[in-house]
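Inputs:
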Amino acid sequence: MYMANRKIRLGVNIDHIAFIKTSRETLYPNLLDAVRISEDAGADLITIHLREDRRHIQDKDATDIRQYAKVLNFEMANTDEMIRFAMELKPDYCCIVPEKREEKTTEGGLNLTSYSDTQLKKLELTISNFKKNNIKTSLFIDPSHESINIATDVGAELVELHTGKYANLFNTIDEFEALEEVSSASKYAHTKKLLVNAGHGLNYENLSEICKLDHINEINIGHAIVSQAVFTGLSDAIKKIISIINKHD
Ligand code: PXP
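Outputs:
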């Protein structure tokens, strides 16, 4: 097995493999094979998102993967249904994400600045209940200082910075500004003693710049890896990402 010896951890999101399985309600592609191949290729953790509409990962997939994955990061909306599910599942990490039925994917971070007191209290309660159950919670947020302040106030230990804006603006005149937002948020979150993860839209071209930033603890990548895996296989696709991380670590 590949021994991870890097500072930046890699979470491989296997939702898109689950999507192929769910779209035909077949037993293949086998998600436990995806976990094994990812871990053997050097993934530090496996990430799955159980969506309200169950468009990719199913409940049983999540429980099977929990039994099998060495380190599991469970993405979920902060709903009563998902909180109950996560308490039973006991993943190592939970990442709270916003969720809209009509979106193609998680299009932005949690809009914490517009949260009501009730929503903030609920988030705080989820984080503290998860903590009591040894689940570390991260909040998926846009890279802004305001969101980081609120994440700290509600007791988060980790944040995942949404890199979608940077990814969309990559190779345009506005790329640097978007990267600077992620960079500044990462530094600020570090001063607040938060661990800083990053993800969304990262791929073989745009990843390097993110790896050069200070204080990045972990990156989560799904779509680009699974897309590359169609041509070269999952193991190679992951190793190629790891070689990019290693260049900057
Ligand atoms: N991180 C989080 C919190 C996500 O919800 C997702 C999927 O939207 C990802 C990372 C991975 O994004 P992508 O599939 O674009 O690599």
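Remarks. DSSP finds eleven helices and eight strands in the chain. The radius of gyration is 17 Å.
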